Amino acid sequence: LERKFHTLVSSAQDALVASVDIKLWPEDMMWGTPPGFICQNPSAFAVWPPPGAGHPSPQCTTNAYPSAPRDGTQRFMNIGAVLGSPAAWRRLLRCMADRYDGWPTRCPIAHRHDGTYEYINDSRFNRRRNGPAAGAWGWDQACYHMYVMEGWHGLLPAHCPLIVLDFNATLTLSLNKITSALSLGRNKRARFELTRQTPCILHANGPSKYWAPILQWWWDRAEYELPNPQMFNGVLKTWTGPNPRKSPIAIPHSLGAFDRINRTLLSMQTIHPV
Questions:
Q1: Residue 192: its H or E element
Q2: What pairing do the DSSP bridges indicate for beta strands 131-133 and 182-184?
Q3: pLDDT tens-digit map of 209-219
Q4: Other C-beta atoms within 10 Å of 57: how many?
Q5: How much is the pTM?
Q6: Distance of CA 166 to CAs 87, 106, 174, Å?
Q7: Cα separation of 24 and 222, whole Å?
Q8: C-alpha span between 60 and 74 (Å, rounded)
Q9: pLDDT tens figures, 196-209
């Protein structure tokens, strides 16, 4: 962890490292005057595999957000994993408090050319694609998106630490929409096949939450032990509880994903960390 962290922040002293996601969330982030959506068509890029060899959607090619060094498959910050020293965290939160009026209970969703913001909080908000929402559906992550974009455009004061995005999944990997590119080794190491990196942290975010029992089964079994459906069924029961219909885990998807793992893990070799 420490070696990978310091490699990522080598050019930005006292920075923090954050995971990235294929999907911008909340999808309503805006930049410019008049503020334009960072992604014009969010539903177009929330698929896997992404169309073509370039960005997941041409409508998500934007200069407002930091550019990924490769094909842009994963580009947008996800605060499911943010790593940094306590001192860097204190400076980050102090900068947010100074810049974003009402933080932490409200965050900017739009940055105008004159430096002013449009804010959201836990009250009702009419999203452009999924209708009205309330509560902490996305306002907290909106603060971090805005902070990353302002750092990208050189708008942060010198005392505010930068956030380095882990585009290649060197340290942390968000699984939303990319589980087909994930390999689980017999020796409890995972590999992201698009970059051949072996992340230390796996985050089952968004629709990938159904992978949680699969990862639990994989982690709990003895090292180098071959898959056993009966073992997985036991893990699955601990997630479903007495009433499977009320479970947050998509059981059919879990079983389908396990079947795929069961077929491929038998021939999988040891994954050596990089």
A1: strand 190-192
A2: unpaired
A3: 777 777 877 78
A4: 20
A5: 0.84
A6: 20, 26, 10
A7: 37
A8: 11
A9: 999 999 998 887 87
Other C-beta atoms lying within 10 Å of the C-beta of residue 263: 10
Q: What's the gap between Cα 274 and its chain centre?
A: 21
CA separation, residue 164 to residues 88, 167, 169 (Å): 12, 9, 12
Residues in the chain: 274
Task: Give the separation between CA 79 and CA 83, rounded to whole angstroms.
Answer: 10
Could you tell me the two tokens for 247? 């479970």
Which pair of structure tokens corresponds to residue 138?
Answer: 């996305």
Whether 26 contacts 141, CB under 8 Å = yes
Peptide bond into 26 cis (omega under 30): yes
Tokens describing residue 78: 């996800």
The three-point CA angle 215-219-220 to 5° equals 120
Question: Tokens 């459906």 sit at which residue?
Answer: 229
Termini Cα distance of the chain: 11
